[in-house]
Design goal:
Strand content: 15-25%
Structural class: alpha/beta
Order of helices and strands: HEEHEEHEHEHEEHHH
Distance between the termini: 49 Å
Helix content: 40-55%
Shape: rod-shaped
Radius of gyration: 29 Å
Number of helices: 8
Length: 231
């Protein structure tokens, strides 16, 4: 059934109902009346295959139709094999993740990004721990900062229900033009910085994260500067 579907994509020989066609081959191309093109195909013992019906005039090839279908199938398989499947890998934290666990998950995130996968890191707030969401934000900002050599931030820490998410994508070679998405991200980064300043008086004391919280603003500045350097 799949092969029949591919065959039905192309018109062949007498199925081509136009006055003239452009016949392409190894020696270039020429525009011929349809009857002359059909006669040429018959003389060479091949088929007249319409490969570009929307061109003016339609473009055809002189080739054995079975061989043509085989080449098309082979080309599709090669293109599919070249496609890189990007997966999203999750990294879960608690708002009071200890240093050993943090380094363990950081190592995994580096591996994911180096393999070409995206990373979705999140902090899960259980019960009353939602009151200390600033800890989660600082943790995720530190995480993004530690991964800046391997990935780029797609979404800064954002609270959704009981989870705060950070999205990162692997870095690509070359410098791309600043997209609207990047501009929006920079705007959100600036807003996050303002929020961090407004909440500067909030004391985060558990597991030594208070010291990290005071560095949250520095991390935001570093991330923003990194984005500007990429541009």
């Amino acid at each position: 059934m799949k092969n029949d579907k591919m065959k039905n994509q192309y018109r062949v020989n007498e199925q081509i109902h136009v006055r003239e066609v452009r016949v392409v081959g190894e020696n270039g191309s020429m525009v011929l009346p349809i009857r002359q093109a059909l006669d040429m195909a018959q003389q060479q013992g091949v088929d007249l295959v319409e490969i570009s019906p929307n061109a003016q005039p339609p473009v055809c090839r002189l080739i054995d139709y079975s061989k043509f279908i085989y080449q098309q199938k082979k080309h599709q398989k090669e293109m599919k094999a070249k496609q890189v499947k990007v997966e999203i890998k999750e990294i879960r934290f608690g708002p009071q993740t200890d240093e050993h666990d943090y380094q363990f998950k950081l190592k995994h995130a580096i591996e994911f990004l180096e393999e070409g996968n995206k990373v979705r890191a999140y902090v899960f707030f259980r019960g009353r721990s939602i009151l200390f969401k600033e800890q989660g934000e600082v943790l995720l900002l530190r995480f993004a900062n530690d991964l800046e050599e391997y990935g780029k931030v797609e979404q800064l820490p954002k609270l959704e229900g009981k989870k705060m998410f950070l999205y990162m994508a692997p870095k690509k070679a070359g410098v791309a033009k600043k997209s609207q998405q990047k501009k929006d991200r920079e705007k959100r980064m600036a807003e996050s910085l303002e929020n961090a300043k407004a909440e500067k008086e909030v004391k985060v004391v558990n597991n030594g994260l208070f010291a990290n919280a005071k560095g949250g603003e520095d991390i935001l500045n570093k991330l923003r500067n990194s984005e500007e350097t990429e541009d």
